[in-house]
């Protein structure tokens, strides 16, 4: 899932013995898409894949052989086959073809880095054809797709392992194959290895071991895995390891379950062992399709010490970044427990949505990721008490999507396949829209038609598309059929799926107490046009009124015709108010006229509990986003938003506070005027102070109250609340003496506050660096790494680039955590960080294997930069020096683009800072 890692391989057949327009078009399609799209002349039916791994060397190597059984179904005589492959072959390389008991050879050429071409001596048309190709894949130490080498420390010893990452375009680096998502076939993997201390549990793949043997003469171990179910090749995975441990769970019905980790982490997987089987059971029960019925009787969750993303849903072998699988035993924070369980839920959901049933092409990625996001929240609620993940879907997914989806460069949930033909296009599909909007729109549909109907539709969708590749239209058909065709979902859902953006619904109270509606496309662009504003969506309206409050009737939906909104009205009693989009069920924003806003705000100030907690979060999100997005230079909208936020002084629930702090961080990042910035901080602190409660030792709050406490204390300490800062400093002293003596739920607050306020920051920084390097727990390391970004001093200590980056235990994720902390500290800290990054560009690219290269760091910094001083540093300290350096062309190009982004950000500051000044400093 993840947040975005991935790999793809495609294979293409063309007919060469007959020169025709058809042939020309097929070659053109291959060339125009860089070898990604297949003409559909053939399909694989089975892969027999073998790798011989030499592991007893400094740099392990592999030799591969694949035997592909396939059907070539063109009516003309064919002698040429294209397979996508990013593997180097010798000039005289040949493949062997078997057709109807006749064996002949095929020449291998590589016209393009993305594919190879087989030119055979005889016709290859027919069913049950077999081609055998020997090849040498690269085990990369640069990129982390295909097969790649992981180096890590375990018990003060250097270790290596081989891992794979094939989504989207990594499979072509591993073996020649058909690897569009639509080409599914079973894969049987054989691993031949020469490790002296061999243990078959340390060599794992998607399926259980079928057989294992050892040759005493050669010292070679041969492990054959059972064939996978028919699946897309990007779902293949295997790990070749030393000293890993397979921790198992017992008493499961019909399948084997285990968690695969470094030996020293094996005692910290209790959360995964306990909750993953419960999640699998809950998913099977909800969908009426058990995991075993998907025809893979193994599930392994594997934690990899150095990983390119967050997690990957390989069928039967899900791989994770360590912080999403390895816990801290009974010291695990409730936030980390939630994150581990929900991330496992996301990836397990993919076994149904993505593995068993797979989108047809990368243009429909939301059919995989949207469902996984939806169930990540829904199913976690089934196994964890009091976490309210479905509510968190609104604040942490839907509200994120509503922000991103309001800009011109957004994309629809389902894109035209002709627009998705390159690696950059694929990457665009693995973003906020597919994940966050996808999950939110599915939630909207479920709420509109009801849970029972939704479940029926999903069962039919999965069952009828077994091992297949449905489209969004196919999903809509099953949804509509489940309603017994009483709801015209084909009409209602079309724009939600196939158009980018979403509507803003505005409610206006008239003098006769009727409320009329208007809708337009919502936009956050600074340059709006009338054409952009037209509403094209059927809006699922739900609402309640103050004289008859009911926030639970989510299926009582009125689908508003975009062409006749003026025909709809609601009559209120005198003095009453109305609130639309109950529990933020629909994927749209709501605005009200001044009178209705005033009545809602008054209710919040007097009796906030009368309005559902999710709607309280929604009101905050809508108010602040309306203020920063609508045209005009008046201060009314921000005045209203801050007036609304005053009610938070009496807010006791987590979700509205989360939304509020997201909006405040947005403003803190952008305001450059020191006096206005000080006024904003004072305003936030005034609101927060009403909820500050210094925790007693290991105080027993429920889940959401602990999350809220953490947020409140983080912001109170960050803004200089005296009592909070003193508590954090006292707790840091305790932590220095005995780290296990503090409540880990607040560890991140304590460490960050200490470095931000300490008079001995350099000493404290050194203490935490040492603690980071000696810790073996990824979650503790992450809290420490994030706190290092809070360092209140300039320049950043040299240990940032020396001690840390030279230490093999210091992972890429730890480096990212420090960077994130630093660049959230304002312009001065960004400039200090930027100078370090630019000065060490080659070291960073080498250390982090181009996954989080200087280019990516520059992009992140640009998104957080709102001062031309930062742009000037990039120009002076990098572009002016290296513009003519051929080895830095890509970074210089990115640096120039970063300056363009910063200039756009500065435009926002110029437009809105004056408004905010008038609101905060009247």
TrEMBL record:
Top-tier EC class: hydrolase
The keyword Cell membrane appears for this protein: yes
- Origin superkingdom: Eukaryota
ERAP1-like C-terminal domain span: 577-865
Recorded GO MF terms: aminopeptidase activity; metallopeptidase activity; zinc ion binding
Q: What Pfam families does its record include?
A: ERAP1_C (PF11838), Peptidase_M1 (PF01433), Peptidase_M1_N (PF17900)
Entry's Gene Ontology BP terms: proteolysis
Coiled coil regions, renumbered to chain: none
* Marked site positions, Transition state stabilizer: 435
Q: Does the keyword Ribosomal protein apply?
A: no
Cofactor(s) needed, names only, are: Zn(2+)
- Catalytic residues at 347
Hey, what's the signal peptide range on this chain? Answer: 1-20
As for membrane topology, the entry says: Lipid-anchor; GPI-anchor
Which EC numbers does the record give? 3.4.11.-
Q: InterPro entries given for it?
A: Aminopeptidase_N-like_N (IPR045357), Aminopeptidase_N-like_N_sf (IPR042097), ERAP1-like_C_dom (IPR024571), M1_APN-typ (IPR034016), Peptidase_M1 (IPR001930), Peptidase_M1_aminopeptidases (IPR050344), Peptidase_M1_dom (IPR014782), Peptidase_M4/M1_CTD_sf (IPR027268)
- Compartment(s) where it occurs, according to its Swiss-Prot or TrEMBL record: Cell membrane
Question: Which stretches make up the Aminopeptidase N-like N-terminal domain?
Answer: 43-235
Cofactor binding note from Swiss-Prot or TrEMBL: Binds 1 zinc ion per subunit.
Gene Ontology terms, cellular component aspect? plasma membrane; side of membrane
Q: Which UniProt keywords apply?
A: Aminopeptidase, Cell membrane, Glycoprotein, GPI-anchor, Hydrolase, Lipoprotein, Membrane, Metal-binding, Metalloprotease, Protease, Signal, Zinc
Q: Which residues bind Zn(2+)?
A: 346, 350, 369
Looking at the record, the residues that make up the Peptidase M1 membrane alanine aminopeptidase domain are 272-496
Member of which family?
A: Belongs to the peptidase M1 family.
Can you say what this protein is called?
Aminopeptidase
